[in-house]
Amino acid sequence: KPSARVSDIIPSGKDGWEVHVEATIRKEAGEDIIMLSIGDHDFETPGETVEACVTAVRGGHHHYTHLSGIPRLREAMANISTQSTGVPTTADEIIATPGGQLALYAATQAVLDPGDHAIVVAPYYATYPPTFRAAGADYTVVEAHPQDGFQPRAEDIEKAVRPNTRAILINTPNNPTGAVYTRESLKGLADVCVRHDLWLISDEVYWTLGGGEHLSPRALPGMAERTLVLNSMSKSHGMTGWRIGWLTAPKDLIELLAALNLVTTYGLPDFISRAAAEALENGYGVKEIAERYATRRTVFLDAVRGLNNVTVRGSAGGMYVMLDISAIEPDCEKFAFGLLAAENVAVMPGSSFGEAAAGHVRISLCQPEDILKEAAQRLRRFTSSYS
Ligand code: PLP
Question: What is its EC number (predicted)?
């Protein structure tokens, strides 16, 4: 019999991806489906990064590497963390991981014991609750409200703090809402962390896609020593399939986490690490990718402007736009399945990301502008025919 530990990670067996799965099956069978359900780029990794990897492979870099990442990579990651968080960061405050997801796993394993409690702000990225469960931790979901543009309210978070609360998990720019947390929101969160002596796990994998200067809570007073920042090259550098990310955290935690890499990844592939270091050092693709998503967001928002009874919420950054469709259909899963059936457009029901996003659908901007415009037209037809 399988262990309770693995069986309980996704206890219901339902993970919120049902619409996407159906759409993928139909697309693979040759149907013309517009896939706006998944957050993976429609373009390839920048050529310079690919070349750097090929050079490293041909150069014989095929061996085991350092558990926490090769020094050049950790150095490059530290420089980006200095830039993204505004706090001078050194390589010994960095552990390289296969993607932001493993950085999240490492963060939760580093600060939560079984039975500890954590707070997660919703709408959230779909893997957050299972990652807490994998740590054996209990968690409370605190909703950020659509009418606040999905900014979190510190007083709601504080109310959820218990004697055994150890950490709060946030994400800005946010998936799924596209909300970019304001200085005021982050300040409120930071005050709660300081008052109750909590860790803050801050998922900043979309930091280059925020449409302006990125604000990290790590830079706020009293926060550098209690903030663990997740980062990744998946979105910023167009490298989802390469599995490269990192965790920035106080040095003593990072030292301990080498043991976690020992028993899990045993370090990253050497040739990927070298290509990633070069891409970080030179910012391969970063500016172009950020500009591409900014243009797509504007184009899509223009195209859905004036849709009957549909309201845009959040949607200031990241790779997604969130549409409130509750005035047409309160059941967002029904809406998403209906849209797929009637118009061959796949979107994610907001309920996949927590209760706060129920009544919404998430649109991924991972398609070229003309396809986004076509999707908006199909959405217009579907919403106006909806009864
Ligand atoms: N965090 C957020 C908010 C995400 O949206 C994603 C991926 O979609 C991740 C983390 C994990 O990304 P990766 O493991 O590819 O770095």
Answer: 2.6.1.-
Burial of 130 (0-12, 13-18, 19+ CB in 10 A): middle
C-alpha distances in angstroms, 166 versus 122, 160, 262? 18, 12, 25
Cβ 352 under 6 angstroms from ligand 1: no
pLDDT digits (tens, 9 = 90+) for 218-261: 999 999 999 999 999 999 999 999 999 999 999 999 999 999 99
Q: Determine contact, residues 381/333, Cβ cutoff 8 Å.
A: no
> In terms of DSSP bridges, do strands 199-203 and 227-232 run parallel, antiparallel, or are they unpaired?
parallel
> Do 63-282 and 4-45+286-382 have the same topology in CATH?
no
- Residue 177: which region, alpha, beta or left (left: phi > 0; alpha: psi -120 to 50)? alpha
Name the residue ranges covered by the structural domains of the chain. Answer: 4-45+286-382, 63-282
**CA nearest to 275, candidates 144, 109, 96:** 96
Domain 63-282 has CATH 3.40.640.10: yes
Please work out whether the CB of residue 202 comes within 6 Å of at least one atom of ligand 1.
Answer: no
Q: pTM above the 0.80 mark?
A: yes
- Cα–Cα distance, 362 to 353 (Å, whole number): 9
Q: What is the pLDDT of residues 112-135, one digit of tens each?
A: 999 999 999 999 998 999 999 999
The ipTM (two decimal places) reads: 0.99
CATH superfamily of the domain spanning 4-45+286-382: Aspartate Aminotransferase, domain 1 (3.90.1150.10)
Structure tokens at 160: 């959820």
205 C-alpha vs ligand 1 centroid, how far in Å?
A: 6
